[in-house]
Design goal:
Elements: H1 9-13, E1 17-19, E2 27-29, H2 37-45, E3 51-53, E4 59-61, H3 71-76, E5 82-84, E6 92-94
Antiparallel strand pairs: 1-6, 2-5, 3-4
Length: 98
């Protein structure tokens, strides 16, 4: 029987490093007054919790923690709620296994 304590996702994400491409985010949220159901879903399904509501009730993203999993791309890009592209070379998530 395995007696090791369970590992939380947040603890594993801590090992990753991010090289932020200032001024060139690879994910952008479309301007909106009321968030769509797809944008609201991103608040719960993003494993890195990059999406949050601002004081005006609009969805914003902080790309400096993005693990580039593509979940937001599958949910919100087809509806036009976000623009997603690969980060420029050398930028983005730097995975560290351990």
């Amino acid at each position: 029987m395995n007696c090791e304590p369970p590992v939380r996702v947040e603890d594993k994400l801590y090992y990753n490093r991010y090289l932020v491409d200032v001024g060139h985010p690879h994910v952008k949220v479309r301007a909106h007054t009321t968030p769509s159901p797809q944008l609201l879903a991103l608040l719960k399904v993003c494993p890195a919790r990059c999406y949050e509501l601002n004081d005006n009730g609009q969805v914003e993203i902080a790309v400096d923690g993005c693990i580039e999993c593509g979940t937001c791309r599958v949910i919100a890009e087809p509806t036009g709620d976000i623009e997603w592209s690969h980060p420029r070379g050398g930028y983005g998530v730097l995975f560290k296994f351990g």
